[in-house]
């Protein structure tokens, strides 16, 4: 006994050490996730009065332009910026050279007799025509096909590393250059008829080749240079200048000045010796929040601390969400509302419980609120959305439920955002309606919860309600095997499932888990179904040819056989617990008593007639154990009535309590009383037993008499 106590004490010590280490590591990781800059100590909202003391500028700082102002300036610069095209003069020279060679070759043909004395001048005119086209520049495609030229009237020629502005109207495409040259050659043919036979043999498309190439590198470089020259500020505030007085309304201009001071303050303080004070404050804040989370779990959900998996999963999910938010904010703060933050609450709700999900969501939102712009607004929106998500997602039983939950989340975000905006701005026109697109994306991304649930089930060994529904389906492979090979046991399992599900629903627990566990609790009987009474034909009992010990071993083996079979079919461990515990450490009563009666003078080894256990440690497994015993025993009653069923239930409960089978199950005396009542009512319904209540009959007669008297009075 001392050895067993020492082992339990050592196990408890290491478990406690593991849990404490988890919370310490979580604290450190969250601390590292928070930015090192100081936080502005004043909260303010546009359109609301300044609630603090009069604010005087503590130092000189620039008034930063708003994002809209900077965007307008950037758009203006980008619209005015011209794209750069490299002019390749060598291409024109090469093509004109080929043209001159062809003209000379054609001059040696019989048609050359028709030439005039001005042949050299005509040749030069034709070459000059082609030189003009190449000099003006030829694009491979039409101007409308170049996105960089959209809305432009000019472009920049880059020739010998020197840029010059050229109107688009003077530029050719291959098609317009061809038309221009064809027209020019036609005019020469009309002016010099003797050259016409030779000119028709000169095809412009043979010599045309684009000599303007879009210079993306130079264009981007010049664009960035222009953007870098845009000033991010529009004025200065001098040290000692009054910014806003207490009670003053925060106008858009004042709001811009306050935001500028906030950024300057945080950057300035982050570079001073007070930075270490900021780190200390951040540490105190994180420690307090993690401590509050621990106290909540310790006082409200203490059973969570008993499971390494559950507490590790909860803290891991919170840390991952915080780091994901940190990554998004550091990349682009505008995307903060695109983060599907409610996935944290939905996932914890699916595997654990609603209160824990809401609390963890709140703690995570408070932490992330220190990273994002408009922290108060972010925290408020996430707490509301997370709470609505958990309430609307009572049970994740169907895919459609998650879609409905996403719609509720979207509506919560939209209504809350519009409400906050109206409080700040005071009118509908000032609301930034484009911000709503982030909430739509957020709601869509929430659907990823369904995929995450599947991944976490496989990774952490959780069992979701969706999986429980799939497992409890009677056509599932293992249950179909039970129905075909041990039909009596299958019917018994159905009855136990109905009893236990009804009981746990009224008592408080997971009905789906209980039903599924009850359906599988006797699955081991499929190995030798004919050894169990419910599957035996009349007059055939294989136990008659076996010793009592052998019979007991066969009967008890259905527990270990069930565990082996369930593992083979990859049934979750949570369901296998029902197989292990549905007999606990009780004895095979019939064979044990028969052995004692047949050998009164011998000491019977009770271990040979005792199930391997363990005893139930949850409400769900305890209820299935009781329902299994009561359902099986009720079949052996000769006279089934309310009294006999009530006596049977009392007897079984007393036996289980006496044998210590319910010592580790979280059931109170009130729970046991309620369970007795539930089992009795359910069995009376199953066996169609009508209970007599003389007192109630008397009451009914009195009531009817009273009703008749009342009717007479009314008549």
Automatic annotation (TrEMBL):
Database matches in Gene3D superfamilies: Hypothetical protein af1432 (1.10.3210.10)
Chain ranges of the HD domain: 489-633
Keyword S-adenosyl-L-methionine: no
InterPro entries from the UniProt entry: HD/PDEase_dom, HD_domain, HDIG_dom, Metal-dep_PHydrolase_7TM_extra, Metal-dep_PHydrolase_7TM_intra, PgpH_phosphodiesterase
Keyword field: Membrane, Transmembrane, Transmembrane helix
Keyword Plastid belongs to the record: no
Pfam families: 7TM-7TMR_HD, 7TMR-HDED, HD
Residue spans crossing the bilayer: 12-34, 275-298, 310-329, 335-352, 364-391, 403-424, 436-456
Superkingdom in the source lineage: Bacteria
PANTHER family noted in UniProt: CYCLIC-DI-AMP PHOSPHODIESTERASE PGPH
Entry protein name: HDIG domain-containing protein
